[in-house]
Automatic annotation (TrEMBL):
<comment type="similarity">
    <text>Belongs to the SUA5 family.</text>
</comment>
<feature type="domain" description="YrdC-like">
    <location>
        <begin position="14"/>
        <end position="201"/>
    </location>
</feature>
<protein>
    <recommendedName>
        <fullName>Threonylcarbamoyl-AMP synthase</fullName>
        <ecNumber>2.7.7.87</ecNumber>
    </recommendedName>
</protein>
<feature type="binding site">
    <location>
        <position position="63"/>
    </location>
    <ligand>
        <name>L-threonine</name>
    </ligand>
</feature>
<keyword id="KW-0547">Nucleotide-binding</keyword>
<keyword id="KW-0067">ATP-binding</keyword>
<keyword id="KW-0548">Nucleotidyltransferase</keyword>
<feature type="binding site">
    <location>
        <position position="68"/>
    </location>
    <ligand>
        <name>L-threonine</name>
    </ligand>
</feature>
<dbReference type="Pfam" id="PF03481">
    <property type="entry name" value="Sua5_C"/>
</dbReference>
<dbReference type="Pfam" id="PF01300">
    <property type="entry name" value="Sua5_yciO_yrdC"/>
</dbReference>
<dbReference type="GO" id="GO:0000049">
    <property type="term" value="F:tRNA binding"/>
</dbReference>
<feature type="binding site">
    <location>
        <position position="235"/>
    </location>
    <ligand>
        <name>ATP</name>
    </ligand>
</feature>
<keyword id="KW-0819">tRNA processing</keyword>
<dbReference type="InterPro" id="IPR038385">
    <property type="entry name" value="Sua5/YwlC_C"/>
</dbReference>
<dbReference type="InterPro" id="IPR005145">
    <property type="entry name" value="Sua5_C"/>
</dbReference>
<dbReference type="GO" id="GO:0005524">
    <property type="term" value="F:ATP binding"/>
</dbReference>
<feature type="binding site">
    <location>
        <position position="153"/>
    </location>
    <ligand>
        <name>ATP</name>
    </ligand>
</feature>
Amino acid sequence: STAPQDSVSLPGDPDGVAEAARLLRAGQLVAFPTETVYGLGADATDPAAVARIFAAKERPRFNPLIAHLPDLAAARRQGRFDAFAEALAEAFWPGPLTLVVPATDGTTVCDLARAGLPSVALRVPGHPLARDLLAAFGRPLAGPSANRSGRVSPTSADHVRADLDGRIAAVLDGGATRVGVESTVVACLGGAPRLLRPGGITRAALAGVLGREPQTAEAEDTARPVGPGLLASHYAPRARVRLDATALEPGEAALLFGGAGPDGLAGARAVLDLSPSGDLAEAAARLFGALRELDATGAPCIAVSPIPGTGLGEAIRDRLERAAAPR
Ligand code: TXA
Ligand code: MG
């Protein structure tokens, strides 16, 4: 048996991208930056490589992976796009949108990556390093968020190493991610499009393209959710998370929004404000890093100030509600 090796840190330049592509072609795991969060990359066409993702993340195998592609033309070879999917892809790719569509007969995304489903989740990311990597690799790149299953998603290479060092071959370092919450997942499987996961593209932006609000997937908090990964408890730091806190218990860590603090702030273990000016995009970009930072203080509970559920606030609140859900 071999001892786990430290994961190599690859620079976000052409040499780093070339080495990342070489490792991926050899069936290895390479974490890579996207504009949302870091992905845990593996060759989506290779079941042995994809199996390494599930092992490294300790992810249940019923939870399918997103395949990342360089452009819409490449995506059309993997999935069948109806008029809704076409319109959404044209409007938001490259960008923080994932489309769940019926897989084509010729799809090269392996069964394991799709968790045996007849559908496939496709995304064309906008991050320049992700795009360079996809161009150099030349195959669909499976990429769940690069965290251990159920934990807080990574928005920096350091976050990836904290969760996965020694379990993956390398991390391509692109610095901090811009959006900070994952892609919006929309299913276009016939009939009306359904919003499976709020994310970096807002509900209002989707409605602007679709001409009406997407349906919201139901039963997200049941044992068998519509999106298999949408389990109630997720994004969880070690500390408990308490939402819409207007008063603080002594020793709690406080996660503020918009400057105003809860009563009892003087007794806080630690205080962070996601956006003193009340900017939801700034708050989304800081969310996962702030949860990790407050967790590291050892506080038993993170009390979160009220955050509006509009715009990007829907995705922020979704992640916080899952972080606060019973485990
Ligand atoms: O922003 C993102 O989407 C990041 C970056 C790396 O691209 N990736 C990401 O992947 O968040 P992951 O695996 O953490 O979340 C993918 C979500 C899961 O909830 C999964 O269940 C859902 O997409 N999903 C994947 N394939 C699906 C399918 N065929 N049907 C329904 N849901 C699917
Ligand atoms: Mg994830």
